[in-house]
Write a structure and sequence with these properties.
Aspartate Aminotransferase, domain 2; single chain; 7-stranded mixed beta sheet; alpha/beta; 2 domains; 3-stranded antiparallel beta sheet; 14 helices; binds pyridoxal-5'-phosphate
């Protein structure tokens, strides 16, 4: 498979573990192992302490499947496949798509959500939001992109990088549009439950549509990216069966410690999600003040959910050049829109981390110096 490099991940690989400050990470603050184990029930504590480090069940640990099914009303363990989120995107596209199929993907977006389809030999059209309308993804624009050969539509709400979430009735209308034509839907729900307005949580697509695949996992909302655990939920059994066959060629099964730790986290989901949301809320308030103070440099649409947003930099400087200087001179890493293949005027800010306020202060000092009049 001749797939191009993943530009965003390569940019992170360059800076994530050397930059002093990260201002663009999309995951929430990671939990520490003792903190997570503290939450374990006596049964799970014992499972952890007596864990045998052998192969695990390929589909996922039965308790993990039981917990994950709770996120997708009407579905059960038989509708799920556990694998790292990124791996699941790969498995799904490989299982579902053929060269020549037409795919429509929300864009800008997480590169694998369209690049894998392209590499398989699909024709990919981009469904772009309107920045002037609060990053709204317009259904009429989507309708205009649909062709007789359209096999799959890929969306991701809350959206990386803009933080956009459609209202539920628009999401329902999108599903109706696809249902009429039998088009599959990959709904990347990795940032679900990080909605700024808690009422904005969309129904998981797989609960409402028999041809939808919902992707969720431990990395973003739970702040447990290092576990590398996620899942796809769907009622489309033939595709799920093929994905299971393909997984034998990727990881075969998930890591045993990661599965147990994920079960512990999922059994405590209320507390973990509330804690992450409180942090995201505090950080967003700081970011609002920052954006007001620096309104002469940046314009932004306040995100509706997720832990990221995508401000525009005013003026002519490319955000790639700006980001390179910022990391070199102030040790702060941001992700310029170049890594999303989306021009050179935007950059992504991530506000899920505990030290966000501190990093924002350092960023402010840098801007004051750089743009002093
Ligand atoms: C929208 C989206 N989908 C999928 C992924 C992949 O998740 P993971 O890194 O847990 O494999 C990411 C990671 O950044 C993402 O932002």
């Amino acid at each position: 498979m001749k797939i191009p490099p993943f530009t965003l991940e390569r940019y992170f690989a360059k800076h994530e573990f050397s930059a002093k400050y990260l201002l663009s990470s999309s995951d929430c603050e990671s939990l520490r192992l003792p903190e997570l184990l503290e939450m374990a029930s006596p049964e799970m504590r014992s499972s952890w302490e007596n864990l045998q480090l052998g192969y695990t069940e390929s589909q996922g640990h039965p308790l993990l499947l039981e917990e994950t099914a709770k996120f997708h009303a009407g579905l059960s363990a038989s509708n799920l496949l556990v694998a790292a989120p990124q791996e699941n995107i790969f498995l799904l596209m490989e299982a579902l798509l053929q060269p020549g199929d037409h795919v429509i993907a929300a864009f800008p977006g997480y590169q694998s959500l369209y690049e894998i389809a392209r590499t398989i030999g699909c024709h990919v059209s981009m469904w772009e939001p309107d920045e002037e309308a609060d990053w709204h993804f317009d259904l009429e624009k989507l309708a205009a992109l649909i062709r007789p050969s359209t096999k799959l539509v890929v969306v991701n709400f809350p959206h990386n990088p803009t933080g956009y979430i459609p209202p539920q009735d628009e999401f329902d209308a999108l599903i109706e549009m696809l249902r009429k034509k039998g088009i599959f839907l990959l709904s990347d729900e990795m940032y679900r439950f990080l909605e700024i307005n808690p009422g904005a949580t969309l129904t998981s697509a797989c609960s409402n549509y028999e041809r939808a695949f919902s992707l969720f996992g431990m990395s973003k909302t739970f702040g447990l990216a290092g576990l590398r655990i996620g899942w796809i939920a769907t009622r489309h059994q033939p595709t799920l069966a093929r994905m299971r066959e393909l997984k034998d060629y990727t990881t075969i099964c998930s890591s045993a410690p990661s599965e147990i730790l994920s079960i512990i986290a999922l059994q405590n989901k209320g507390a973990i999600i509330a804690d992450q949301n409180a942090r995201v809320g505090r950080n967003l308030a700081l970011l609002e003040k920052f954006m007001t103070k620096y309104a002469h440099l940046f314009r932004w649409n306040r995100p509706r959910g997720g832990s990221i947003c995508f401000p525009r930099m005013l003026g002519d400087e490319s955000t790639l050049a700006f980001a390179d200087l910022l990391v070199e001179e102030a040790g702060i890493m941001i992700a310029p829109s170049h890594v999303f293949d989306y021009g050179n005027q935007h950059f992504r800010i991530g506000f899920g981390r505990e030290n966000f306020g501190e990093v924002l202060d350092v960023f402010g000092e840098y801007l004051d110096k750089k743009f002093k009049s």
